[in-house]
């Protein structure tokens, strides 16, 4: 791997990585694919995550839970992948989703995913490091962290737009825009009539996800004597909505 700022070696082709990271997509896909197909729990004959993919086909629950301890201890290559997952989750998880999608189709090429209308999502858990809530700082931004605490409040379900539909007020031409990290890139002009500032958002034709705000309070054993407990707001999406209840740890 070339690090955050890869440089070309003399006489060698440069290794393509995602800008600002040390992630080579092809390497990540190959390492994770080998892990999915070969990681076994002691005493089991069938790879654990192949069993999980078969279970998705049987139950229709479109999530696969990846134990990060398995990634960390399986091989040197997956240890490197684990480190990248913690440092760059927004870049790594979509790649893992793609590998899982491809492997599921290889096992069950019967149109199941098309009928479900959803993609399988990777949910990583069991990080090696458990952080204290009051120790979080700017270095943790955009990274994956593991916290322990108690849920003190959960909001009702909030609609969260994922695909917006815009309609031209002059010619009624429609355009869809996929939301990128919470930002709607509103079309500046109509693709059909080329008029500017004529696109109107049509809410009831747009697609929404479920979202829920959860208030997390640090665990009592982590609160210094005489100090006020720290709290943190986190958001749960889709299948994780209404899973956690106030009072849960």
From TrEMBL:
It catalyses: ATP + H2O = ADP + phosphate + H(+). It is found in: Nucleus. The keyword Transcription does not apply. Keywords: ATP-binding, DNA replication, DNA-binding, Helicase, Hydrolase, Nucleotide-binding, Nucleus. GO terms for cellular component: MCM complex; nucleus. This is DNA replication licensing factor MCM4. The keyword Zinc does not apply.
């Amino acid at each position: 791997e070339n690090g955050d700022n890869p440089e070309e070696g003399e006489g060698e082709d440069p290794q393509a990585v995602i800008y600002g990271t040390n992630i080579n997509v092809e390497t990540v896909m190959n390492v994770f694919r080998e892990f999915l197909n070969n990681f076994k729990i002691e005493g089991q004959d069938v790879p654990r995550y192949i069993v999980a993919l078969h279970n998705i086909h049987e139950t229709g629950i479109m999530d696969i839970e990846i134990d990060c301890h398995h990634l960390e201890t399986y091989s040197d290559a997956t240890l490197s992948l684990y480190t990248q997952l913690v440092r760059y989750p927004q870049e790594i998880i979509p790649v893992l989703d793609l590998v899982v999608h491809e492997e599921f189709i290889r096992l069950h090429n019967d149109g199941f995913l098309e009928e479900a209308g959803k993609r399988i999502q990777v949910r990583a858990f069991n990080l090696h490091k458990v952080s204290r809530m009051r120790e979080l700082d700017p270095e943790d931004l955009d990274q994956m962290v593991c916290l322990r605490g108690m849920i003190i409040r959960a909001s009702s379900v909030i609609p969260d737009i994922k695909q917006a539909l815009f309609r031209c007020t002059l010619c009624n031409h429609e355009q869809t825009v996929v939301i990128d990290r919470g930002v709607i890139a509103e079309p500046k002009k109509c693709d059909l009539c080329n008029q500017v500032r004529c696109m109107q958002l049509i809410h009831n034709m747009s697609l929404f996800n479920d979202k829920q705000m959860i208030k997390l309070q640090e665990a009592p054993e982590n609160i210094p004597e005489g100090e006020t407990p720290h709290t943190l707001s986190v958001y749960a999406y889709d299948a994780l909505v209404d899973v956690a209840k106030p009072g849960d740890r």
